[in-house]
Structure prediction request, 165 residues.
Amino acid sequence: MAVWCSRACYPNGRSFTANLESTCSLTAARIRTFEEYYTRGGTTPGGGNLGFSKQMSVLKEFLHGFEFIRMKPDEALVKGGLPKNGRARTLSEPGKQYGIYFFGGPSAKPLLTIPAGKYQAEWLSPVTGKVLSSVAFVTKDGPIELASPKVVSDIALRIKRIEAK
Prediction:
């Protein structure tokens, strides 16, 4: 994929490949690479199989929940609250929409820096794409803590502004 799309550039100044890599880190729970599927008996051309197709479908639905082209990686969004070995990958359009993928813990209480406003947050399973928990919240300028439901390992968070800015 990187061969044909690595030269495309988006308004945030990052290449399509860089944006896609960030997004896959964010939403695709343990998507296996072409080589893993191919060597484990994938029979479809290109190495895909039913499991891979389902994961790509979850990723697609997650991304369709955003105006993705307006988002870019945002390392300043998560200020803390991750499990001991936890990590987070983020994409955002500050003040409007946020996508965060959390790795490595049964739960997280991320401390997020989101501008003042009213938002809707949805915790999603990256395996099934189902909403595990949903909450509306209002924040003033400053960090806010959102507790995730307990999960086996990874979880995704979608936050969208409710009111017009």
User: Anything to note?
Assistant: The longest helix spans residues 50-64. The first strand starts at residue 72 and ends at 73. The CA atoms of residues 42 and 159 lie 35 Å apart. The mean pLDDT is 76.
